[in-house]
Amino acid sequence: MRKLFRELHLWLSLPFGLLIMVTCFTGAMLMFENEVTLLCNYRATFVVPDGRPLPIDVLVSSVKDILPEDIDVTDVVVYPENDRAYKVKLSAPKHAAMYVNQYTGEVTGDAGRLQFFRVMRHMHRWLMDDSRGKGGVFWGRLVVGTSTIASVVILITGIVLWVPRSLSSLRNRLKIVATKGYSRFCYDLHVAGGFYVALLLLTMAVTGLTWSFSWYRNGFYALLGVEEVQGIGRNRRGQETVNSVEWPSNVWQRAYETVAERNPGKLITVSKGRVAVAVGGLGNQEAVDCYTYNVDGDIVDELLYEDSGRLAKIRGWIYSLHVGSWGGLLMRVLYFLAALFGATLPLTGYYMWFKTLLRNRGKRGRC
Predict the structure, then answer these.
(1) Does residue 212 form part of some domain?
(2) Considering the entire predicted model, what is its pTM?
(3) Residues 251-303: pLDDT tens digits?
Protein backbone atom coordinates (compact mmCIF):
# COMPACT_ATOMS: atom_id res chain seq x y z
CA MET A 1 0.00 0.00 0.00
CA ARG A 2 2.82 2.41 0.82
CA LYS A 3 4.35 1.68 -2.58
CA LEU A 4 1.07 2.63 -4.27
CA PHE A 5 0.89 5.87 -2.28
CA ARG A 6 4.50 6.62 -3.15
CA GLU A 7 3.81 6.15 -6.84
CA LEU A 8 0.70 8.34 -6.70
CA HIS A 9 2.58 11.01 -4.76
CA LEU A 10 5.43 11.06 -7.27
CA TRP A 11 3.61 10.80 -10.58
CA LEU A 12 0.99 13.37 -9.68
CA SER A 13 3.60 15.77 -8.32
CA LEU A 14 5.73 15.73 -11.46
CA PRO A 15 3.12 17.12 -13.90
CA PHE A 16 1.14 19.25 -11.44
CA GLY A 17 3.92 20.53 -9.19
CA LEU A 18 4.48 23.84 -10.97
CA LEU A 19 0.75 24.56 -11.15
CA ILE A 20 0.41 23.84 -7.44
CA MET A 21 3.34 26.17 -6.76
CA VAL A 22 1.64 28.99 -8.68
CA THR A 23 -1.68 28.43 -6.89
CA CYS A 24 -0.05 28.42 -3.44
CA PHE A 25 2.13 31.47 -4.12
CA THR A 26 -0.68 33.59 -5.56
CA GLY A 27 -2.96 32.52 -2.72
CA ALA A 28 -0.38 33.69 -0.21
CA MET A 29 -0.07 37.03 -2.02
CA LEU A 30 -3.85 37.55 -1.79
CA MET A 31 -3.99 36.82 1.93
CA PHE A 32 -3.39 40.41 3.02
CA GLU A 33 -4.79 42.22 -0.01
CA ASN A 34 -7.04 44.49 2.05
CA GLU A 35 -4.26 45.60 4.36
CA VAL A 36 -1.79 46.25 1.55
CA THR A 37 -4.43 48.12 -0.47
CA LEU A 38 -5.26 50.23 2.57
CA LEU A 39 -1.60 51.07 3.06
CA CYS A 40 -1.08 51.97 -0.60
CA ASN A 41 -4.19 54.17 -0.56
CA TYR A 42 -3.57 55.63 2.88
CA ARG A 43 -4.02 59.28 1.90
CA ALA A 44 -7.24 58.56 0.04
CA THR A 45 -8.62 56.25 2.72
CA PHE A 46 -8.27 58.38 5.84
CA VAL A 47 -9.86 61.79 6.31
CA VAL A 48 -9.95 64.46 9.02
CA PRO A 49 -13.30 64.35 10.86
CA ASP A 50 -15.13 67.66 10.53
CA GLY A 51 -18.57 67.77 12.06
CA ARG A 52 -21.35 65.47 10.89
CA PRO A 53 -21.00 63.43 7.68
CA LEU A 54 -23.01 64.54 4.68
CA PRO A 55 -26.10 62.47 3.82
CA ILE A 56 -25.31 59.39 1.77
CA ASP A 57 -27.57 60.56 -1.04
CA VAL A 58 -25.54 63.78 -1.36
CA LEU A 59 -22.32 61.75 -1.59
CA VAL A 60 -23.85 59.46 -4.20
CA SER A 61 -24.92 62.46 -6.27
CA SER A 62 -21.44 64.01 -6.08
CA VAL A 63 -19.91 60.78 -7.37
CA LYS A 64 -22.50 60.40 -10.15
CA ASP A 65 -21.63 63.88 -11.38
CA ILE A 66 -18.18 62.71 -12.44
CA LEU A 67 -19.22 59.30 -13.80
CA PRO A 68 -20.23 58.39 -17.35
CA GLU A 69 -23.97 57.99 -17.82
CA ASP A 70 -23.75 54.21 -18.22
CA ILE A 71 -22.06 53.71 -14.82
CA ASP A 72 -24.07 53.78 -11.61
CA VAL A 73 -23.36 53.66 -7.87
CA THR A 74 -24.25 50.23 -6.46
CA ASP A 75 -23.12 50.34 -2.82
CA VAL A 76 -21.82 52.74 -0.19
CA VAL A 77 -19.67 51.23 2.56
CA VAL A 78 -19.74 53.13 5.87
CA TYR A 79 -16.97 52.20 8.30
CA PRO A 80 -17.39 52.40 12.08
CA GLU A 81 -14.27 54.60 12.33
CA ASN A 82 -15.12 58.27 11.76
CA ASP A 83 -11.75 58.93 10.06
CA ARG A 84 -12.27 56.29 7.34
CA ALA A 85 -13.52 57.65 4.03
CA TYR A 86 -16.67 56.05 2.69
CA LYS A 87 -16.18 53.55 -0.14
CA VAL A 88 -18.54 54.01 -3.06
CA LYS A 89 -18.78 50.96 -5.32
CA LEU A 90 -19.56 51.29 -9.01
CA SER A 91 -21.48 49.13 -11.47
CA ALA A 92 -18.55 48.96 -13.93
CA PRO A 93 -15.86 47.94 -14.42
CA LYS A 94 -15.81 44.97 -12.09
CA HIS A 95 -14.59 45.76 -8.55
CA ALA A 96 -14.42 49.49 -9.36
CA ALA A 97 -14.88 51.83 -6.38
CA MET A 98 -13.96 55.27 -5.10
CA TYR A 99 -13.12 56.76 -1.72
CA VAL A 100 -15.25 59.77 -0.80
CA ASN A 101 -14.68 62.23 2.04
CA GLN A 102 -17.98 62.03 3.88
CA TYR A 103 -17.50 65.50 5.39
CA THR A 104 -16.82 67.42 2.16
CA GLY A 105 -18.16 65.19 -0.63
CA GLU A 106 -14.75 65.19 -2.32
CA VAL A 107 -13.64 62.07 -4.15
CA THR A 108 -10.27 61.32 -2.55
CA GLY A 109 -9.06 58.44 -4.72
CA ASP A 110 -9.53 55.10 -6.39
CA ALA A 111 -10.68 52.25 -4.15
CA GLY A 112 -10.57 49.51 -6.77
CA ARG A 113 -8.40 46.41 -6.71
CA LEU A 114 -4.71 47.14 -7.26
CA GLN A 115 -3.24 45.81 -10.52
CA PHE A 116 -0.86 43.48 -8.68
CA PHE A 117 -3.70 41.78 -6.82
CA ARG A 118 -5.82 41.69 -9.97
CA VAL A 119 -3.07 39.66 -11.66
CA MET A 120 -2.58 37.47 -8.58
CA ARG A 121 -6.30 36.70 -8.42
CA HIS A 122 -6.55 35.85 -12.12
CA MET A 123 -3.49 33.60 -11.80
CA HIS A 124 -4.83 31.97 -8.66
CA ARG A 125 -8.26 31.17 -10.05
CA TRP A 126 -7.89 30.94 -13.82
CA LEU A 127 -4.19 31.12 -14.78
CA MET A 128 -5.01 34.45 -16.51
CA ASP A 129 -7.65 32.76 -18.68
CA ASP A 130 -10.52 35.15 -18.03
CA SER A 131 -13.08 33.94 -20.55
CA ARG A 132 -14.72 30.79 -21.80
CA GLY A 133 -13.50 29.18 -24.98
CA LYS A 134 -15.59 28.71 -28.11
CA GLY A 135 -16.61 25.28 -26.94
CA GLY A 136 -17.85 26.61 -23.60
CA VAL A 137 -14.90 25.23 -21.62
CA PHE A 138 -13.27 27.58 -19.16
CA TRP A 139 -9.81 26.09 -19.55
CA GLY A 140 -8.07 28.16 -16.90
CA ARG A 141 -10.55 27.20 -14.21
CA LEU A 142 -10.49 23.58 -15.38
CA VAL A 143 -6.69 23.35 -15.16
CA VAL A 144 -6.57 25.03 -11.74
CA GLY A 145 -9.34 22.78 -10.45
CA THR A 146 -7.68 19.63 -11.77
CA SER A 147 -4.34 20.57 -10.22
CA THR A 148 -6.13 21.28 -6.93
CA ILE A 149 -7.66 17.79 -6.97
CA ALA A 150 -4.18 16.44 -7.61
CA SER A 151 -2.84 18.47 -4.69
CA VAL A 152 -5.44 16.90 -2.37
CA VAL A 153 -4.27 13.41 -3.38
CA ILE A 154 -0.62 14.48 -3.08
CA LEU A 155 -1.16 15.87 0.42
CA ILE A 156 -3.07 12.80 1.63
CA THR A 157 -0.50 10.37 0.23
CA GLY A 158 2.26 12.55 1.65
CA ILE A 159 0.76 12.32 5.13
CA VAL A 160 0.50 8.54 4.83
CA LEU A 161 4.13 8.29 3.66
CA TRP A 162 5.22 10.58 6.50
CA VAL A 163 3.91 8.20 9.18
CA PRO A 164 7.06 6.52 10.64
CA ARG A 165 7.36 2.78 10.77
CA SER A 166 8.53 2.93 14.40
CA LEU A 167 8.40 5.36 17.32
CA SER A 168 12.18 5.63 17.32
CA SER A 169 12.14 7.33 13.93
CA LEU A 170 9.35 9.75 14.86
CA ARG A 171 11.81 12.39 16.10
CA ASN A 172 13.59 12.51 12.74
CA ARG A 173 10.28 12.94 10.93
CA LEU A 174 9.55 16.04 13.01
CA LYS A 175 12.94 17.79 12.75
CA ILE A 176 14.34 20.11 10.09
CA VAL A 177 18.12 19.85 10.22
CA ALA A 178 20.19 22.54 8.50
CA THR A 179 23.67 21.37 9.53
CA LYS A 180 24.00 18.10 7.60
CA GLY A 181 24.18 19.30 4.04
CA TYR A 182 21.82 20.79 1.49
CA SER A 183 20.29 17.45 0.47
CA ARG A 184 19.29 16.59 4.03
CA PHE A 185 17.94 20.12 4.55
CA CYS A 186 15.74 19.86 1.43
CA TYR A 187 14.53 16.43 2.51
CA ASP A 188 13.55 17.68 5.96
CA LEU A 189 11.85 20.75 4.50
CA HIS A 190 9.80 18.53 2.23
CA VAL A 191 8.97 15.77 4.72
CA ALA A 192 8.77 17.48 8.12
CA GLY A 193 7.80 20.91 6.82
CA GLY A 194 5.17 19.44 4.53
CA PHE A 195 3.64 17.58 7.47
CA TYR A 196 3.35 20.78 9.52
CA VAL A 197 1.42 22.66 6.84
CA ALA A 198 -0.53 19.74 5.33
CA LEU A 199 -3.73 20.29 7.32
CA LEU A 200 -3.99 23.98 6.41
CA LEU A 201 -3.18 23.27 2.76
CA LEU A 202 -5.83 20.56 2.67
CA THR A 203 -8.38 22.97 4.14
CA MET A 204 -7.58 25.54 1.45
CA ALA A 205 -7.74 22.92 -1.32
CA VAL A 206 -11.01 21.18 -0.42
CA THR A 207 -12.80 24.51 0.09
CA GLY A 208 -11.26 26.12 -3.00
CA LEU A 209 -12.57 23.35 -5.22
CA THR A 210 -16.12 24.63 -4.66
CA TRP A 211 -15.26 27.49 -7.04
CA SER A 212 -13.87 25.17 -9.71
CA PHE A 213 -16.45 22.46 -10.34
CA SER A 214 -20.23 22.58 -9.96
CA TRP A 215 -20.39 18.79 -9.44
CA TYR A 216 -17.92 19.06 -6.57
CA ARG A 217 -19.72 22.07 -5.09
CA ASN A 218 -23.10 20.32 -5.16
CA GLY A 219 -21.63 17.17 -3.63
CA PHE A 220 -19.74 19.14 -0.99
CA TYR A 221 -22.84 21.07 -0.01
CA ALA A 222 -24.93 17.89 -0.04
CA LEU A 223 -22.59 16.39 2.56
CA LEU A 224 -23.32 19.45 4.69
CA GLY A 225 -27.06 19.07 4.33
CA VAL A 226 -27.79 21.39 1.38
CA GLU A 227 -29.32 19.50 -1.52
CA GLU A 228 -28.89 21.94 -4.43
CA VAL A 229 -26.54 24.87 -5.00
CA GLN A 230 -27.02 27.10 -8.04
CA GLY A 231 -24.01 29.32 -7.42
CA ILE A 232 -21.43 30.31 -4.86
CA GLY A 233 -21.86 34.08 -5.07
CA ARG A 234 -23.45 36.24 -2.41
CA ASN A 235 -27.22 36.51 -2.31
CA ARG A 236 -28.24 39.97 -3.50
CA ARG A 237 -31.90 39.40 -2.50
CA GLY A 238 -33.39 40.68 -5.72
CA GLN A 239 -30.90 43.50 -6.18
CA GLU A 240 -31.35 43.43 -9.95
CA THR A 241 -35.04 44.28 -9.53
CA VAL A 242 -34.61 47.20 -7.11
CA ASN A 243 -31.90 48.74 -9.29
CA SER A 244 -34.55 49.38 -11.94
CA VAL A 245 -36.69 51.42 -9.51
CA GLU A 246 -36.38 55.21 -9.40
CA TRP A 247 -35.36 55.94 -5.80
CA PRO A 248 -36.20 59.35 -4.29
CA SER A 249 -33.54 61.44 -2.58
CA ASN A 250 -32.74 60.93 1.10
CA VAL A 251 -34.01 57.34 1.28
CA TRP A 252 -30.49 55.87 1.43
CA GLN A 253 -29.67 58.08 4.39
CA ARG A 254 -32.96 57.42 6.16
CA ALA A 255 -32.57 53.66 5.86
CA TYR A 256 -28.95 53.88 6.97
CA GLU A 257 -29.78 55.91 10.06
CA THR A 258 -32.48 53.44 11.10
CA VAL A 259 -30.16 50.47 10.77
CA ALA A 260 -27.13 52.26 12.28
CA GLU A 261 -29.16 53.15 15.36
CA ARG A 262 -29.82 49.45 15.92
CA ASN A 263 -26.22 48.44 15.14
CA PRO A 264 -23.78 50.99 16.57
CA GLY A 265 -20.09 50.52 15.79
CA LYS A 266 -20.67 48.11 12.87
CA LEU A 267 -19.54 48.22 9.24
CA ILE A 268 -22.64 48.97 7.17
CA THR A 269 -23.13 48.69 3.41
CA VAL A 270 -26.05 50.60 1.88
CA SER A 271 -27.44 49.93 -1.60
CA LYS A 272 -30.77 50.46 -3.36
CA GLY A 273 -33.38 48.71 -1.27
CA ARG A 274 -30.89 46.94 0.97
CA VAL A 275 -28.70 47.56 4.01
CA ALA A 276 -26.16 44.94 5.14
CA VAL A 277 -24.50 44.96 8.55
CA ALA A 278 -21.30 42.96 9.05
CA VAL A 279 -21.65 40.86 12.19
CA GLY A 280 -18.83 38.37 11.67
CA GLY A 281 -16.35 38.00 14.51
CA LEU A 282 -14.21 34.94 14.99
CA GLY A 283 -15.76 32.34 12.73
CA ASN A 284 -17.77 33.22 9.65
CA GLN A 285 -16.35 36.57 8.55
CA GLU A 286 -19.00 36.84 5.81
CA ALA A 287 -21.89 36.89 8.28
CA VAL A 288 -24.27 39.81 7.72
CA ASP A 289 -27.66 40.98 8.92
CA CYS A 290 -29.74 42.14 5.93
CA TYR A 291 -32.44 44.80 6.02
CA THR A 292 -34.77 45.65 3.13
CA TYR A 293 -36.29 49.12 2.75
CA ASN A 294 -38.88 50.64 0.42
CA VAL A 295 -38.88 53.80 -1.71
CA ASP A 296 -39.81 55.84 1.38
CA GLY A 297 -36.73 54.64 3.24
CA ASP A 298 -38.74 52.53 5.72
CA ILE A 299 -37.37 49.17 6.81
CA VAL A 300 -39.90 46.60 5.64
CA ASP A 301 -38.06 43.34 6.21
CA GLU A 302 -35.01 41.98 7.97
CA LEU A 303 -33.07 38.75 7.80
CA LEU A 304 -30.64 38.38 10.67
CA TYR A 305 -27.67 36.09 10.19
CA GLU A 306 -28.73 33.88 13.07
CA ASP A 307 -32.08 33.33 11.35
CA SER A 308 -30.69 32.82 7.83
CA GLY A 309 -30.74 29.44 6.12
CA ARG A 310 -28.05 26.83 6.22
CA LEU A 311 -26.94 27.61 2.67
CA ALA A 312 -26.09 31.23 3.44
CA LYS A 313 -24.14 30.23 6.53
CA ILE A 314 -22.23 27.45 4.77
CA ARG A 315 -21.21 29.77 1.92
CA GLY A 316 -19.72 32.24 4.36
CA TRP A 317 -17.97 29.55 6.35
CA ILE A 318 -16.42 28.00 3.24
CA TYR A 319 -14.96 31.34 2.18
CA SER A 320 -13.73 32.09 5.71
CA LEU A 321 -12.11 28.65 5.95
CA HIS A 322 -10.52 29.06 2.52
CA VAL A 323 -8.82 32.39 3.29
CA GLY A 324 -8.20 31.83 7.02
CA SER A 325 -10.25 34.79 8.20
CA TRP A 326 -12.24 32.60 10.59
CA GLY A 327 -9.48 32.65 13.19
CA GLY A 328 -8.51 36.32 13.20
CA LEU A 329 -5.15 37.84 12.36
CA LEU A 330 -3.08 35.01 13.84
CA MET A 331 -4.82 32.39 11.71
CA ARG A 332 -4.41 34.49 8.58
CA VAL A 333 -0.66 34.74 9.29
CA LEU A 334 -0.52 30.95 9.65
CA TYR A 335 -2.44 30.52 6.39
CA PHE A 336 -0.06 32.94 4.66
CA LEU A 337 3.01 31.05 5.90
CA ALA A 338 1.46 27.68 5.02
CA ALA A 339 0.57 28.79 1.48
CA LEU A 340 3.99 30.34 0.96
CA PHE A 341 5.68 27.20 2.25
CA GLY A 342 3.35 25.10 0.11
CA ALA A 343 4.80 26.85 -2.95
CA THR A 344 8.25 25.50 -2.00
CA LEU A 345 7.15 21.87 -1.64
CA PRO A 346 7.15 21.17 -5.41
CA LEU A 347 10.66 22.67 -5.66
CA THR A 348 12.11 20.50 -2.90
CA GLY A 349 10.22 17.52 -4.35
CA TYR A 350 11.69 18.10 -7.81
CA TYR A 351 15.14 18.43 -6.27
CA MET A 352 14.82 15.13 -4.40
CA TRP A 353 13.50 13.36 -7.50
CA PHE A 354 16.30 14.72 -9.66
CA LYS A 355 18.95 13.69 -7.10
CA THR A 356 17.50 10.18 -6.97
CA LEU A 357 17.46 10.04 -10.76
CA LEU A 358 21.15 10.97 -10.96
CA ARG A 359 22.10 8.54 -8.23
CA ASN A 360 20.32 5.66 -9.95
CA ARG A 361 21.99 6.48 -13.26
CA GLY A 362 25.35 6.51 -11.53
CA LYS A 363 24.73 3.06 -10.09
CA ARG A 364 23.78 1.66 -13.49
CA GLY A 365 26.92 3.22 -15.02
CA ARG A 366 29.18 1.52 -12.51
CA CYS A 367 27.61 -1.85 -13.30
Answers:
(1) no
(2) 0.89
(3) 999 999 999 999 999 999 999 899 999 997 788 888 999 999 999 999 999 99
pLDDT, tens digit, for every residue of 12-50? 999 999 999 999 999 999 999 999 999 999 999 999 999
Let me know if residue 130 belongs to a domain: yes
Q: Show the domain range for 346.
A: 2-31+117-205+338-366
Same domain? For 190 and 82 the reply is no
The pLDDT of residue 227 is above 80: no
3-state secondary structure the chain: CHHHHHHHHHHHHHHHHHHHHHHHHHHHHHCCHHHHHHHHCHHHHECCCCCCCCCHHHHHHHHHCCCCCCCCEEEEEECCCCCECEEEEECCCCCCEEEECCCCCCEEEECCCCHHHHHHHHHHHHCCCCCCCCCCCCHHHHHHHHHHHHHHHHHHHHHHHHCCCCHHHHHHHHCCCCCCCHHHHHHHHHHHHHHHHHHHHHHHHHHHHHHCCHHHHHHHHHHCCCCCCCCCCCCCCCHHHHHCCCCCCCHHHHHHHHHHHHCCCCCEEEECCEEEEECCCCCCCCCEEEEEECCCCCEEEEECHHHCCHHHHHHHHHHHHHHCHHHHHHHHHHHHHHHHHHCCHHHHHHHHHHHHHHHHHHHHHHC
Same domain, 26 and 142: yes
